Amino acid sequence: MPEPLDPDMFDPVCPSDLAPIRFGDKWSGMIIRCLEQGPRRFSELRIPLHGITAKVLTRSLRTLTRDGLVERTVHPAQRVEYALTPLGRSLLEPMNAACAWTEQHWDELLDARESSPLTPS
Asked: Does the pLDDT of residue 88 top 60, yes or no?
């Protein structure tokens, strides 16, 4: 059994939406990170994903499962766990590269965002 997830594993000062490289929807990359160390239950995933609703987490997990990145296993007594598939694990290396790139270009990304705010359409 993996260690409990750190409730602060996603730094609110470092929003994932700053990274221009996204894996799936807003939450998919963070869900994949939560599953990196082993299977997790739905309630465990909600701990570090503070801003996600149960509905959105369910939808993201279903999408990741449909895409073959996550496997959903129902154990006796209706205990459900989610785990990365080999295909899902193969995303970890590109995600690490994207995170390293974002960290390297953090100041440039912040400057660009501050100098060019989104305008409503």
From this structure: yes
* pTM check: above 0.90: no
93 Cβ neighbours under 8 A, 6+ residues apart: none
CATH of 16-115, one of 3.40.50.450, 3.40.50.150, 1.20.140.10, 1.10.10.10: 1.10.10.10
Residue 13 has pLDDT above 50, yes or no: no
Beta strands in 1-121 (DSSP E): 70-75, 79-84
Q: Which candidate, 12, 16, 44, places its Cα nearest to that of 28?
A: 16
Given a contact cutoff of 8 angstroms between Cβ atoms, the answer to whether 66 and 103 are in contact is no
pLDDT average, residue stretch 19-34: 82
Cite the beta strand spans of 77-119 per DSSP E.
79-84
Residues composing the chain: 121
